[in-house]
Amino acid sequence: MTVRLTVNGEPREVDTDPTRLLVHVLREDLGLTGTHVGCLTGDCGACTVELDDRTTKSCSVLAGQADGAEVTTVEGLADPDRPLDPVQQAFWDEFGFQCGFCLPGMLLCTRELLRRDPEPDDAAVDLALNGNLCRCTGYAGIRRAVHAAACRLRSDEVAS
Amino acid sequence: MTPRFLRPDHLDGVTEALAGAEAPSVLGGGTALVPDLTHRKVAPDLLVDLSRAGLGGVRVEAGVVQVGASATYTDVLATTDPAPALRLLRTLAGGVTGGPQIRSRGTLVGSLSYANPASDVPAAMVALRATAVLASTRGTRAVPVADLLTGAFSTGRATNEVVVRLELPAADERPGYVKLKLAESSWPIVTAAALVRTDGTARVVLGGLSPVPVRLEVGADVVEVVPDHDDRTVADALSPAVAAAGGEPWQDVLADARYRARVAPVVAARALRRALTTTSGGAR
Asked: What is the pTM assigned to this prediction?
């Protein structure tokens, strides 16, 4: 089956078995290896992408289910030769990651949270990120990074 | 063998596809079924994706809450209707483990159909006296959820049927929902949905204790002591009824049956307190 996706703004067509996992299509067919394969059970969040503006675990979505969808992966946040996205920069500044395996999920869930709630409290941050497991940071730096990103985005808005 | 994949754009397409297959699986959000496919726990010959069949949405008509097959936890969280059933379901939906990624994709009907004894939805739907509407090429039938659940990971749904919606009757009851889980990212250990009636009596339905939800009737004499006593005291008062109502024990890797039996009366007591003390049913 031909699966049509818009990936990071670009239309893509993939000739594939519709029962393959979306995360495998992204990594193996489209070369977008920023989306990670972790548990393959929907627990860890390392495979998180945005599917039609909602964060989704791409290990729990079949290619056929994604046909026609807009997909944003971590590669869609910023070009390699351009400045980081404000959420990425906040994670960098606040030591919001170490090994980086969970980072795609943390970044995409933070973006989704801040679109909905520009000034979240700790409880809202925890609720938004509780589908992402980090084994390095102990989460304190991640919380700090989300608040820093929120602050940065609010001041960007005032400036523009 | 790789299953065929279909995504019909109306309900008739779904039921016709199911009728023509030997071992089909119905794909709601896929948050349970897709990992099971990956790990080869299921081997269907056909996957029928419901997402284009127009079965989404949460509606309230004349006090009756209808939860469509494609309605996600996020859809429930977006509702504002003060119906007691929806207040309880909003609390439940906000506490579903797995993050917004799961809450925006997982469906309540899917969770009910999957019938994991330790998941939130089955016991809550029994507490809310939900009826499941099932469709096939032979027509539709309505089955109380309490009768549809037949065991762990097992329901009375035939392989060529699909649950199209849940219907929750209007009720003037005060809802409370509490679950015990051992970590933020854990499955529930025991869940309790409490509904306190205007006559002061209550029903509490416990999940995670037995293969199917456990129903308790709580007399007004017990309900009325809740505000003035701590959870331990209320739990002691509830314990005989919990022990009497419990069916065969259930356990999984997260907690054994003895632990579940020990904590169940406490979780029930907390749910009763929540029902009595928060006007919103604890809804986020």
From this structure: 0.95
